[in-house]
Specification:
Length: about 240
């Protein structure tokens, strides 16, 4: 449902009728008549089209552009983000989506604000998935990343089960990121970013017990939103599709 996939080969200039499961992806992306969307045909080629007609049962899309290469990165990045204050979570979702992140999971760490405290000022969490959808439309991505539900630190660690590289930003004694990426040429990465003030030593030990490697981004201390956006960009440059 996060990607509009067609069941046949499509060429530029065609009008494509969308119905059935692909139409659910349309609804998920909130498209309307006149909206421009990225679709993927049966051969895996990404195309750009404008919605000409739309009803409950079907949609008609005019294809006006074919991309020379995929719009989606071969690298799967799961961003585990400690909830920051104010509008920073919205900024992280927007920019990480533009950079090709696959999943975003907000969580509560020892030094982060809670969702209840943040929402008491102004309810915003209900907009998180909508922000990702709009960032996809702006960046011409084919896939909408999932912004999952807010959870505890321990619950966030459980998401990382399975294959892939697991890294946690820890400015005090983390390894050099470039060296770690050279050792692990993997196509799935769980990246955990802490709040302002960073993770506690106890949290880092818990993460290490779950297979996370502490890493650092140089000697400067970055704001949490700067760290998250920079980290995703570096990962895509080194292992993904930012060339």
């Amino acid at each position: 449902m996060d990607r509009i996939i067609l069941d046949r080969k499509v060429d530029k200039g065609e009008e494509v009728l969308i119905e059935g499961p692909p139409l659910e992806a349309f609804r998920f992306q909130g498209v309307r008549v006149g909206s421009i969307v990225t679709l993927t045909d049966s051969e895996g080629d990404d195309l750009r089209g404008r919605v000409v007609r739309l009803s409950k049962e079907k949609a008609l899309v005019l294809i006006f552009e074919a991309f020379p290469s995929p719009t989606e990165s071969p690298l799967e990045v799961i961003l585990l983000q400690a909830l920051p204050e104010k509008e920073r979570m919205e900024l992280i979702i927007q920019k990480a989506t533009e950079l090709g992140v696959s999943t975003i999971i907000p969580f509560k760490s020892g030094r982060s604000i809670s969702l209840e405290e943040r929402e008491a000022k102004q309810k915003k969490a209900h907009r998180w998935q909508e922000i990702a959808v709009k960032a996809v439309q702006q960046s011409r991505r084919a896939r909408v990343p999932r912004v999952e539900s807010y959870r505890s630190f321990q619950e966030a660690l459980k998401v990382s089960k399975g294959e892939g590289l697991k890294i946690v930003l820890y400015e005090k004694e983390g390894e050099n990121l470039k060296n770690v990426l050279r050792r692990y040429q993997l196509k799935k990465i769980c990246a955990m970013v802490g709040p302002e003030g960073g993770f506690t030593a106890e949290e880092v030990e818990l993460a290490k017990d779950k297979g996370f490697i502490p890493i650092k981004l140089g000697q400067r201390i970055l704001r949490t939103e700067t760290a998250a956006i920079t980290l995703v960009g570096i990962l895509q440059y080194e292992l993904g599709d930012l060339h």
